[in-house]
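Final report, closing paragraph on structural work. Over the funding period we assembled a curated collection of sequence-structure pairs, and we close with a single example.
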Amino acid sequence: MDIRLTPHEARVIGCLLEKHRTTPEHYPLSLNALTNACNQKSSRDPILALDEATVQDTVDTLMKKHYVVEKSGFSSRVTKYQHRFCNSEFGALQFSGQELGIVCVLLLRGPQTPGELRTRTERLCKFQDTREVESTLIQLMQRDDGPFVTKLPREAGKRESRFAHLFGNDTEMHEAAAPDDAVSAGPDTDADRIVQLEQLVKQLRDEMATLKARLDRISPEQDPGSMP
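Its predicted structure, as stored:
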């Protein structure tokens, strides 16, 4: 099943999935509530600042794809929205509670380790331990109608590999939300690290030479240990 979501679409779907599960009394969501959910400071990565027009455009696109529908009661004057992305009578995509919890958190927070997923899905579903998370991830990777999740190469210095959803590439959104100086914040490759180490060694050698020259200028009568 090939489902491709843009980064903003993934955020909207993730928010609708989350609020449907965690605050059913406030679901479906109005445009204002959905915008606030997309821009939420907690449980989101990256943190966004979408305006209502952008969220509305995203919702309109998702409605054309039949992943979102309007759902307003007769007494409500405000248009509200609910997802039909999965676990609905209108679509073939069905997830277990644990699978849905993992997919939702991956849509909202990007790639994560099994340990992070176990902690961050607590409000959505329950896992006994990290092994149960890993087992569910394997199910999502091996489903006949999938895969829906992929295992990323383990990062240098990390003990656990991260897993990402396969509903679209959210790298674009992470890069757009990163500060301008993110690239220069630290070395990204082994070559960069070598260059920095060489510069550090040269700096230390220069400082040592300066100190040696100062000691050489000390008169024989002066005890170096008495220097202030």
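The mean pLDDT is 84. The longest strand covers residues 80-83. We thank the funder for supporting this effort.
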